[in-house]
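Good morning C.,

I know you're traveling, so I'll keep this short. The sequence:
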Amino acid sequence: LCDLYGLDTISTGGTLAWAMECNERGLLPEAQKLGLRFGHADGLFRILRMIAEREGLGALLAEGSRRAALETGSDSCYWAMHVKGLELPGYEPRSLKTMALGLAVSPRGACHNRSGAYEADFSGEVDRLRADRGRGALVAASEDFAAVLDSLVICKFLRKCFTDFYGEAAELLNRVTGWDCSASELRQVGERIQIFKRLFNQREGWQPKDDWLPPRLLSEALPTGVAQGVALTAAELKEMICGYYQARGLDENGLVTGGKLRELEVLIAAAAGMKSCQATKHAAS
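The tokens, ready to paste straight into the viewer:
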């Protein structure tokens, strides 16, 4: 139904979960009338149509969990699971520490398609239950990789077909276009894309506090499962974010520096974007 109505399944699911919890806590009387409760699917078919047509409660939920929670109040922002307004995908950040960082710092919000950070957790390359500063470099590399994949219009399900991605991708690009692009140049393209994303967000009002996770994830440990009792603290997240900023060559507040722009040979952006960066820095201080 989400596909038929043109609704994003992740954001719709996350927003409906918010509405169900509101119902459990005595908010949103219309949600109770519709039978929106965890474990009960009957009310979902009707509310999906209502969201698509912005009818009744659907008009509120169509705005997503962040805006719906702000309008509803009563501390409902606490159980609105989003980053920068984008609802979290189906991964548990408290037991996937690299993924937690990737979701927090992503320019797009909680998007698993713009960062494959979870792959480091699943691979056994790191201890997924422990946080450390070194996750920053892993997240930055995964973002660059995803950016180049998207730019080459290569399906992410094919990402494991490469043994030397940047080298092989550069060869494919050169054969199609007649260019002479090296593996290192292509790798830098991914980094440049990510820096431009951050510059765009800074121009539009991004603040350092926006690189963060929902408070609930930082105050409640996992209640069940193989990782029962595992938590993610604000101090752990802050340490990983500092590592990410360092790996990205950003300043201590996550702002793009003139030096980084010169390194990436984007001096046009330096002239156009640094004024907004300075304004953001002033606001952060």
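Safe travels,
E.
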